[in-house]
Amino acid sequence: MFKFVVLAAFVAAASAGLIGAPLATTYAAAPLAVAAPVAKAVVAEEYDPNPQYSYGYDVQDGLTGDSKSQVESRSGDVVQGSYSLVDPDGTRRTVEYTADPINGFNAVVHREPLVAKAVVAAPAPVVHAAPIAKFGHFIH
């Protein structure tokens, strides 16, 4: 913006004959053509006092393992929704949220494992008894 102001001042000074012409030479400067402001048509946007919508999506890609979903709805100034995704640690994160002018934005996060961890007991050690030598004979 500053550059435009400087340029406009320079053009005005040159048009007035203050710069660009020798001091001893006087001439009649051509009048500067100025465009009249153009009136812009202002289109009033429609105001919806009770906006409403709802949408959702669900992605379950077995090839890449991508699994996510979201649903949301709005009625006036109240928005409710939830989304879920699979975190890298193998749990599904689900976020349920609401927003309204009185309570603001609130969210509750749930996490659940996708695969139950199986408890595997370590196998019992196998003990092999070595034969004992007693007086030259092996006893089992």
TrEMBL record:
The keyword Disulfide bond does not apply. One of its GO terms (molecular function) is structural constituent of cuticle. GO terms for cellular component: extracellular matrix; extracellular space. Keywords: Cuticle, Repeat, Signal. Residues 1-16 form the signal peptide. The keyword Repeat applies. InterPro entries: CHIT_BIND_RR_consensus, Insect_cuticle, Insect_Cuticle_Struc_Prot. Pfam families: Chitin_bind_4. PANTHER family: CCP84AA-RELATED, STRUCTURAL CONTITUENT OF CUTICLE. This is Chitin bind 4 domain containing protein.
